[in-house]
Design a protein that fits this description.
2 strands, Growth Hormone, Chain: A
């Protein structure tokens, strides 16, 4: 997680030094940033079949060598093209981290500790982001040192992987039952043998029943355990995660902070460190609550807070833009998407353009100590905190729990591919959106996505906390026929929607507000009870 987080966050600070040295234009900056999610998309298509064939642990070890090579290419890069090649390789390595780590953790952890262990990976990611921002503050303008650190982190990860056991689920899928039993006894030290044998039989039964399934079963129909519903839930969760705009804060943190009034490079990197610190603290909170409160409730609450924070931020930037227009007598166009000249030694920046304001800050008409910029930063910190406590760790935790054992690696890999594709779309369009529709419009769009996330999580995401992977699979099978599910109140999201629609249609046909036209019948109220309770 530490390696993954650092690789995600390092580019934000590095761009401050790369822009003047390579004279990067806006499209070239977007290209450098989006090279990582592009490589991650390609890598995510390959990692799952390789993990099914060679094992989770072995592929994670090989990935460390790839990360070391990518770090060396970036450190020695003499041109834009080698920078792009290094970022593409780094993206492939990041994709393996994103898929393999959560998958491995979910398969070796006991059900009551699975949430905390997978969330601990997210804590590592946030610590990596904080390390990246802190390194930028200390090492800039030496961007080559920033790109050298991922190689050292990959060496540390390789050393940590050596004593870890293989996944017992993978061993059973490969027909190696004695080794799987030995590994499970090692992982469940302190438990009685009967419990260990019972867990082993449950895993073996699930693997045997699902071994004949193919990836096409995920989308073909719900004939096999509600696979299509699981896959649609996973795809929607990763899309909502990326389209909320959180990746833009990772990749462009100093740039976004410049747009709300932090003018110098030192101010921007220091404020970015604050963003990283908030992510770490929020992830610790999530780590403590994810198995107590439940995945679904955390997703609903987190996405609601994210939507509120982005709405406030959009209003702040809109007011500031109008104030700027009135005071300057000209139309405001954000200027952070321009070719820039940055003097990192003097901690100042300037941008040059014929028809666009060069400051890049909606608060430039105010003093450096204006509360407006800090209030805007506070709303962004609230957004970051809500994301890091909810959608950040919980989405990947849910993905690692809802898919059957024989398809888990490929299903999570497919969702990961979609996640990186959505991340590519947001990262390659963020600066252009800021310049085209401004900060209020851009973050207003992201606010709308967060509102959709609230509705989706409430209606369709099942509750998986405290349940074995086999029990989750059985509940998905029962939910296909309208039975009880792992959702918030037990009934499946589709069934909840169908009951509500049926009740509404009956009320509309009666014309007097009851289900069959008799006042006081109460039937409509009874039909709505499961929805209200849930």
């Amino acid at each position: 997680g530490l390696t993954f987080g650092y690789d995600l966050g390092v580019i934000g600070d590095a761009l401050l030094a790369l822009r003047p040295q390579f004279r990067l234009t806006c499209p070239e900056q977007e290209l450098i940033v989006s090279a990582l999610p592009l490589g991650a998309f390609a890598g995510s298509l390959l990692v799952s079949p390789l993990m099914d064939r060679y094992g989770r642990r072995r592929i994670l070890r090989a990935n460390c060598a790839l990360l070391i090579g990518a770090s060396a290419a970036l450190t020695a890069a003499p041109s834009l093209w080698l920078l792009l090649a290094g970022r593409l390789l780094l993206g492939v390595g990041v994709a393996v981290c994103a898929t393999g780590e959560c998958l491995y953790a979910s398969e070796v952890a006991a059900p009551k500790r699975r949430g905390a262990l997978v969330s601990a990976n997210e804590l590592g990611i946030t610590l990596g982001l904080l390390l990246a921002y802190a390194s930028g503050y200390l090492l800039l303008p030496n961007w080559r040192l920033l790109f050298a650190l991922p190689g050292l982190l990959a060496l540390l990860q390789l050393a940590c992987l050596q004593p870890l056991p293989p996944s017992p689920r993978y061993l059973l899928a490969m027909g190696r039952r004695p080794q799987a039993e030995a590994v499970l006894k090692r992982l469940r030290r302190g438990q009685i043998d009967a419990d260990i044998v019972g867990e082993l039989l449950g895993i073996e039964r699930a693997v045997r029943l699902e071994s004949g399934r193919r990836v096409a079963d995920l989308i073909r129909s719900d004939a096999y355990g509600g696979y299509r519903r699981r896959f649609l839930i996973g795809c929607c969760l990763v899309l909502l995660q990326q389209l909320s705009g959180q990746s833009c804060l990772l990749y462009y943190a100093p740039t976004v902070l410049m747009s709300v009034g932090f003018r110098t490079s030192k101010e921007q990197t220091l404020a970015a460190m604050g963003v990283g610190a908030v992510k770490v603290l929020s992830c610790i909170v999530s780590l403590a609550l994810v198995d107590r409160v439940g995945r679904r409730r955390i997703l609903i609450a987190g996405s609601a807070v994210m939507a509120a924070a982005l709405a406030v931020f959009s209003i702040i930037t809109a007011v500031a833009e109008q104030s700027f227009k009135r005071s300057s007598g000209s139309n405001y166009t954000i200027g952070i998407c321009l070719e820039s000249t940055i003097d990192l030694n003097s901690n100042s920046s300037s941008a040059h353009s014929n028809d666009t304001l060069s400051s890049g800050s909606v608060f430039d008409n105010l003093s450096d100590t204006t509360p407006g910029g800090f209030f805007a930063l506070a709303t962004l910190l609230v957004f970051v905190a809500a994301y890091s406590a909810s959608f950040g760790p919980v989405v990947w935790l849910v993905l690692s729990e809802i898919f059957p054992a024989s398809l888990r690696a490929r299903a999570v890999g497919a969702c990961s591919s979609l996640n990186w594709l959505a991340g590519l779309a947001t990262s390659v369009s963020f600066l252009s959106l800021l310049q085209g529709i401004g900060a209020p419009g851009t973050f207003g769009l992201y606010c709308g996505v967060c509102c959709l996330a609230v509705a989706f999580s409430a209606a369709l995401v099942p509750e998986t906390s405290g349940k074995s992977l086999e029990r989750i699979g059985r509940e998905f099978e029962r939910s296909r026929s309208g039975g009880r599910s792992g959702g918030g109140g037990g009934i499946s999201g589709i069934a909840r929607l169908r009951r509500w629609l049926s009740a509404t249609a009956a009320a509309g046909g009666s014309g007097d507000g009851t289900a069959d036209g008799r006042a006081g019948d109460g039937r409509q109220q009874l039909l709505l009870v499961p929805v209200v309770e849930d």
